[in-house]
Write a structure and sequence with these properties.
The complex is a heterodimer of chains A (259) and B (403). Chain A is built from 10 helices and 10 strands. With 259 residues, chain A is of the alpha/beta class. Chain A has a 6-stranded mixed sheet, sandwiched between helices. Chain A has a 4-stranded antiparallel sheet with strand order 2-1-4-5, with helices on both faces. In chain A, α4 crosses α5 and α6 runs parallel beside α7. Classes of the chains: A alpha/beta (259), B mainly alpha (403). Chains A and B meet through α3, β6, α4 and α6 of A and α13 and α14 of B.
């Protein structure tokens, strides 16, 4: 079966109906430990999927496999019609279309905020400096910190740094955005400003997979919520189904623990 | 009620400091007096030797030899011209680096210069006094003028011509060598003294740095061949004393070459050996820097679609090198001083000159080695100290905004 067949046969539950990300039987091992035990997931274009679950459940590993920060051992991953293979050019082609936001921000401390945002636009998208700068300012305005462009990351608060990280990913004009616990390293008063930016992004029609512990965000923004435990998908459903009438015992237990 | 908060008053002042730090107890007081007396006595006898007993004639007479060794005297003008070019290029680069900063008055510029370059300035004045010749004065005045003109030109250079300025700056060392050695000039086999020391040091640093970075990257490479080659090179070279390598380069190389192939000149062999040796150390220092860059940086770059090479050169190396500036400059200061080891095969760099001139008929057998060594040490110290201070400046400047 070619990946076109797989794409054609995929059942898309949300978004516009076109599949953007297809995971089929994805398995990942760290030595003898199996982190992902055959994950099947189809994310539709413009769909927002929130992944929740206890730590060590494989949520981060799953989204890190989608842009090949981790290499999956079995199964297939197809992003926007391109199947993830071993060829570095193939991997870079997918990475260009998939933005990622990390828990620890991972801004480049030796570059100004503006250069953080423009670097990949210039080096990877090969845009001239003036155009890249203009695009970067547009994205910094979108995350509401254009006035910080000349500063260095170390001079910003955590919330501001995370918004720069979002602007940096957006400047590549990706088709998908992955968020790996974007608010977990933030002080409580800064969480809202980052979530607000993410909500605006979701409303604008970005395809997103968000790993988070922010249940409020999941309820409000998610098209679907996916609960993972021990490397498996336990339950998937709309936020309404998920928070009001979960079926699985493990989901119920998890929800009572965090709510 | 509003309380006006003020920090608690601390008694300060020199007397308080003395009381707290050196005369806290009777025992402290005795140690202070004895140690202070000893230091003063040592300093006093050293100064009295320098100004009364020492015979500085040997340095005065051989000043040009200290600077250039056996360099033919009728071609000395070439060195002068080369120095002017270097001074101009140095000024140009400095001026360009100041373009984005607020304009400073001449007085402020002079103050910065005094703080930054006082050891060099003092050395130059000392040299002028010792030389007490018009040509030396003209040379220093000319170089100063070239520097100021370069600085003004660099400051006014439009941003669009930045690349041109950089090219001029980076090519100036080559121009320096070309003016002296090219156009029917003097090949570097006849260079000596400070001129040769600088050639060895600058050549060694300029070559060992990129070579060392390559080895460090090779050692962390995922390609087994590159990794094992780098590890072998680094561990073998670091296990051998520099002087052994120098002997091998100078003495044994000719034995291995097939008949009819002439070995490269001693100067080239010197630069090559110093480069080979220093690169291994640079590699280990840079590897330490590479390890200090968090893996999240690489992941972020990869997630943006950057290639491994782009990630290395735009993200990892800049941070790694910034982190190891002090150790790196320390290694280069070592190299600067290690250039004196080439004296063992008779190359007349600074130390070689200091030793050789005591054998001149006019000075032989008078025990003047102390004077000449002290003078050579002063020049080495000025060079090393200036490098050390400049590295601290660079560290501070690059540290701005670091997390």
């Amino acid at each position: 079966m070619t990946h076109e067949d797989l794409a054609a046969g995929a059942v898309v539950a949300g978004g516009t109906g076109e599949p953007m990300i297809i995971c089929e039987g994805v398995e990942k091992w760290f030595d003898d430990f199996q982190a992902l035990k055959g994950i099947d997931l189809v994310v539709g274009t413009q769909e927002v999927v929130v992944v929740i679950g206890p730590s060590g459940s494989g949520k981060s590993t799953l989204i890190r496999c989608i842009n090949r920060l981790e290499e999956h051992d079995r199964g297939r991953i197809i992003v926007d019609g391109v199947e993830m293979g071993d060829d570095i050019r193939n991997i870079q082609e997918i990475r260009r279309e998939v933005g990622m936001v990390f828990q620890q921000f991972n801004l480049f401390p030796h570059l100004t905020v503006l250069d953080n945002v423009t670097l990949a636009v210039r080096r990877v998208r090969k845009k001239p400096k003036a155009e890249a700068d203009e695009l970067a300012m547009e994205m910094l305005t979108r995350v509401q910190i254009p006035e910080q462009a000349a500063k260095y990351p170390g001079q910003l608060s955590g919330g501001q740094q995370q918004r720069v990280a979002i602007a940096r990913a957006l400047a590549m004009q990706p088709k998908v955005m992955l968020f790996d616990e974007p608010t977990s390293a933030l002080d409580p008063e800064m969480i809202k400003e980052v979530l607000d930016v993410m909500k605006e992004l979701a409303v604008s029609g970005m395809t997103m997979i968000v790993v988070t512990h922010e249940m409020g965000f999941a309820k409000e923004v998610a098209d679907r919520v996916m609960f993972m435990a021990d490397g498996e998908v336990v339950e998937v459903g709309t936020p309404q189904h998920f928070f009001e009438s979960p079926e699985e015992d493990r989901t119920k237990l998890f929800l009572t623990q965090i709510l | 009620m509003t309380t006006t908060a003020k920090p608690p008053v601390r008694t300060t002042g020199p007397l308080k400091w003395l009381n707290d730090n050196v005369f806290r107890t009777w025992w402290d007081g005795i140690v202070t007096v004895v140690a202070g007396g000893l230091l003063l006595w040592l300093l006093g006898s050293f100064l009295s030797w320098v100004f009364t007993s020492a015979e500085w004639d040997i340095v005065r007479v051989n000043l040009v030899t200290f600077m250039v060794g056996r360099f033919p005297r009728e071609e000395l003008w070439r060195v002068g011209v080369a120095l002017l070019i270097l001074a101009f290029a140095g000024g140009l680069l400095l001026g360009m680096s100041l373009r984005l900063k607020p304009r400073v008055t001449a007085l402020e510029a002079l103050r910065t210069f005094a703080v930054r370059a006082w050891p060099v300035a003092i050395l130059v004045v000392l040299l002028l006094i010792l030389a007490s010749s018009l040509s030396a004065l003209v040379l220093v005045a000319g170089a100063t003028l070239a520097f100021i003109i370069g600085r003004g030109g660099g400051y006014r250079l439009p941003q669009s011509r930045t690349r041109l300025g950089m090219v001029v700056g980076l090519l100036s060392p080559f121009a320096f060598v070309a003016v002296i050695a090219g156009f029917g000039g003097v090949g570097w086999n006849l260079w000596g003294g400070l001129l040769l020391t600088m050639l060895l040091a600058v050549g060694g640093i300029a070559l060992s740095f990129p070579f060392g970075v390559m080895l460090a990257l090779g050692r962390r490479s995922t390609l087994p061949a590159a990794r094992w080659l780098s590890i072998t090179y680094i561990e073998v070279i670091r296990g051998v004393p520099l002087i052994t390598l120098l002997f091998m380069g100078f003495v044994m190389l000719t034995l291995f070459l097939p008949a009819g192939v002439s070995a490269p000149s001693l100067v080239i062999r010197g630069i090559v050996v110093l480069t080979i040796f220093t690169a291994a150390y640079v590699a280990e220092i840079v590897r330490g820097g590479l390890q200090s860059v968090p893996n999240g940086q690489v992941e972020a770059a990869h997630a943006l679609g950057m290639s491994p090479i782009q990630t290395t050169f735009n993200i990892v190396l800049p941070q790694a090198l910034t982190a190891v500036i002090p150790a790196l400059v320390g290694q280069f200061i070592s190299l600067f001083k290690d250039t004196s080891l080439v004296a063992i095969v008779g190359l007349l760099e600074l130390l070689g000159v200091a030793q050789a001139i005591t054998q001149q008929p006019a000075f032989a057998g008078q025990g003047l080695l102390l004077e000449t060594l002290l003078f050579a040490s002063l020049i080495f110290w000025v060079g090393s100290f200036t490098m050390s201070r400049e590295s601290q400046r660079l560290e501070k400047r690059l540290g701005v905004g670091e997390r």
